Amino acid sequence: MSNPLPSVPSSGTAAELENKSNRVAQSEETEEADYSVIEAALQPERVLQLGILGLTTHLAYEKYYKMDIEHMDIMNMALIALVSIGVGAYSSFKASRGNIALLPDFNVVYLIFLPTMLSLLFEQRHAAANIALILNYMQISPFYGLPMQMIFIAFHAMDLSVEEKYTYLAAVPINYAISSVLSRISQLKSLDNVDCNIFSILLTNVLYLNESTSLPFRVLKKTLTAFILVVSINYLISMLLRPMSNSIAKSMILFGVFLCGFPYAVKRLLVIDGLDPLVWLINYIANSKLRQTILLIWLCSLIILIPNVLIFKSSFTLNTSRKVWHFLILLLISQPFQMDSEFVKISLAGTIVLFLCVEYLRYLKLEPFGEFLDSRLRSFADYRDEKGPLIISYIYLIIGIATPLLIDDSPFGLISLGVGDSLASIIGGKWGKTGWPGTGKTMEGTAAFFIGTSIMSLIFKQYLGYFKEISISSLIFVCALSGILEGNSVMNDNILIPAFMLIAERILS
């Protein structure tokens, strides 16, 4: 006869686990039942952010809304997008009996604010398309979402020609495809849903919507197109090479295709004055002593500084060694931009694509340089870079610095990242005592941001010829708002703060 006693503990353990599971489920249900959207929105850091964005929107309203119907329509479209996302999310939240995961991330306010304001201030023609693309954020089937965005565009582009309407309608699937690819590559870890949608809107504008004929923009558009084309070809080749067991040989093949294919694609796509792009670039630099001097200074600085930073990196904290690059870019770009802005903008456009090429080789660890690049870049990675497969900090940095310069010749990217963000991070990390609620950042860091950016902005205005259209008081006001926003936002500073400062500068000019 078997002894029944051993079965008692087992049965008791199962009952305990079941009871524990029930308690956890009840706790989660209670938490969801007690969740209040209003209380969540009224958290101090969110109130401050909403207050700053609301004040900026009010200033834009006062300046533009009463001027003409075009600006009025843009603001109305943004309001419709905000209400659509809010109502859709709240309906899903209620239908799911309070599933908090279905509520939008707070940073969706920036997804609405940034494209709307940049369209309002710099490119009104594309406003209807850009605001419609914001709706891609909504977590609904593309069979419903894409037609909804197209209807939004068609309704708000009634005065346009048929050809222009089709152009804007085609932006919807292009944006969706880019967003889907970014989501897949980043695994929604390196980039979250808001990041993917912000970058998909940016890329849709650069690659498709914007038709600027300026030389820096042409260089950016064509080289970026060449990069995407060759990466796509390599993806197809990698699918064909899956049965291959030798991973090193496979890696070398992909590297060879990229190494040969990218320059060839650039050569075919980018023709300047009827010349091969490399020949044109050599002539462009050779015909100007100033460009040769700027290039020589850049090369000497990098040759001297890069090895020294790598050698003495162990003497600095990770944060300090990362911010060295911020200061370096500030020094290398601010004065040369005043001397030859076109050359600097072309260089920045090329550097953006160059950094993407580096990240592509590192991401796939393609032989013979992939592993080396990964080890070097990982040594400067922070917690955000460790969340997913992409190292995005250095790409964010160059985009944040280049965007204000490329859009409006504004140095606020240099000032905010080269001085403000660096001082806030270093001083806040070492001496910060009083924290902002909900972010982990400190008020001492915010004070350092404000003082540093204010002083540097005044230097740029008084001695370097920048900020001719904005008063000193307005310049300091922009720095104050940006410092508070930087201290309370958890969105990546390298993208948010330069864009916000550019927007505030234009509104207050």
UniProtKB/TrEMBL annotation:
InterPro entries named among the record's database cross-references: Polypren_kinase
Enzyme Commission code(s) on record: 2.7.1.108
EC class: transferase
Cellular localization per UniProt: Endoplasmic reticulum membrane
Molecular function as annotated in GO: dolichol kinase activity
Chain segments annotated as transmembrane: 74-93, 99-122, 134-154, 166-182, 223-241, 253-272, 292-312, 388-407, 443-460
Composition bias, Polar residues: 1-13
Region forming the signal peptide: none
Main location class: endoplasmic reticulum
UniProt record, GO biological process: dolichyl monophosphate biosynthetic process
Gene Ontology CC: one annotated term: endoplasmic reticulum membrane
Protein topology in the membrane: Multi-pass membrane protein
UniProt region (Disordered), positions on chain: 1-28
Family the entry assigns: Belongs to the polyprenol kinase family.
UniProt xrefs under PANTHER family: DOLICHOL KINASE, TRANSMEMBRANE PROTEIN 15-RELATED
Protein name: dolichol kinase
Organism whose genome encodes this protein: Zygosaccharomyces bailii (strain CLIB 213 / ATCC 58445 / CBS 680 / BCRC 21525 / NBRC 1098 / NCYC 1416 / NRRL Y-2227)
